[in-house]
């Protein structure tokens, strides 16, 4: 599988992998080739793709190249070529009565300066407020993720900041927080901004065991206790929650945004 693009290749990889995920019984060799900005480079890439052809293997190419001459060059491949821009871009142009810029950097470049700056500020906020490192200006957050250790707070916070421009703080529940169902003092009055993460005891024990093997922290009993107490806290304060055990960061972010009715600011 080749993911080719005139920019970062993030979109080609994301959309291509979304399609490949529909074939769970198969394994794939993946290669991303970003920043194809000249016809000469496209010819080099074309040679690499066609070299991968065998009597039993036909490569599949997922492309988000928007430059027309480069697209035409790549489409000459003997492999299966899936143009993720192509006719879709033509349709949008026809409906809007405006020609597209065909800019490779339009999606993942700076583009809209205001939205880009919003994302950068959100990332700074998420980093400052990661794992309870700072309790300053929590009221300015769009969302506060609350969970026992190792339930996925940090990656979800960073994803929501980077992809959606949301200011997300995350707060780790520690042993003293499980003594009552009261919200931890720094979160008092902020329940409406909170969203809880849970897991399964087995999954949480496995993840913690990889970090601190043989510790009480990683035992099944400790994980079960913390998850029960966290769930009781969420229920007492009507804090929505999800079980992260079998969810990707992308899925978690989508569910959280929909449940909390958060806007996409990125």
From TrEMBL:
The keyword Cytoplasm does not apply. InterPro entries: Kinase-pyrophosphorylase, PSRP. It catalyses: [pyruvate, water dikinase]-phosphate + phosphate + H(+) = [pyruvate, water dikinase] + diphosphate; [pyruvate, water dikinase] + ADP = [pyruvate, water dikinase]-phosphate + AMP + H(+). It comes from the Bacteria. Keywords: Kinase, Nucleotide-binding, Serine/threonine-protein kinase, Transferase. It holds the Pfam family Kinase-PPPase. Its EC number is 2.7.11.33, 2.7.4.28. ADP binds at residues 147-154. GO terms for molecular function: ADP binding; ATP binding; phosphotransferase activity, phosphate group as acceptor; protein serine/threonine kinase activity. The keyword Glycoprotein does not apply. Bifunctional serine/threonine kinase and phosphorylase involved in the regulation of the phosphoenolpyruvate synthase (PEPS) by catalyzing its phosphorylation/dephosphorylation. Belongs to the pyruvate, phosphate/water dikinase regulatory protein family. PSRP subfamily. NCBIfam families: PRK05339.1. This is Putative phosphoenolpyruvate synthase regulatory protein. It comes from Knoellia sinensis KCTC 19936.
């Amino acid at each position: 599988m080749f993911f080719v693009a005139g920019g970062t290749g993030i979109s080609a990889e994301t959309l291509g992998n979304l399609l490949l995920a529909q074939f769970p019984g198969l394994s794939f060799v993946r290669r991303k080739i970003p920043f194809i900005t000249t016809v000469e480079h496209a010819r080099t890439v074309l040679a690499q793709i066609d070299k991968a052809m065998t009597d039993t293997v036909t490569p599949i190419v997922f492309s988000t190249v928007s430059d027309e001459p480069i697209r035409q060059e790549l489409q000459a491949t003997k492999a299966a070529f899936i143009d993720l821009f192509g006719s879709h871009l033509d349709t949008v142009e026809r409906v809007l009565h405006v020609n597209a810029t065909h800019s490779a950097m339009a999606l993942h470049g700076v583009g809209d300066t205001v939205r880009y700056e919003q994302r950068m500020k959100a990332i700074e906020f998420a980093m400052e407020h990661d794992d309870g490192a700072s309790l300053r200006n929590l009221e300015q957050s769009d969302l506060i993720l609350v969970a026992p250790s190792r339930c996925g707070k940090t990656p979800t916070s960073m994803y929501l900041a980077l992809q959606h421009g949301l200011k997300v703080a995350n707060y780790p529940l520690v042993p003293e927080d499980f003594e009552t169902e009261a919200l931890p003092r720094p979160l008092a009055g902020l329940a409406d901004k909170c969203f809880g993460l849970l897991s399964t005891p087995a999954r949480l024990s496995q993840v913690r065991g990889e970090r601190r093997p043989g510790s009480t922290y990683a035992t099944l009993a400790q994980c079960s206790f913390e998850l029960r107490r966290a769930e009781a806290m969420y229920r007492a304060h009507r804090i929505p929650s999800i079980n992260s055990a079998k969810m990707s960061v992308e899925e978690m972010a989508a569910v959280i945004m929909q449940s909390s009715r958060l806007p996409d600011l990125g």
